[in-house]
Amino acid sequence: MPRSVNSVASRARRKKILKRTRGNFLSRKNVWTVAKNTWEKGLTYAYRDRKNKKRNFRALWIQRINAAVRQYGMTYSQFIGLVAKSGIGLNRKTLADLAMNNPAAFEAVVKQVRK
Question: pTM here?
Answer without folding.
Answer: 0.79
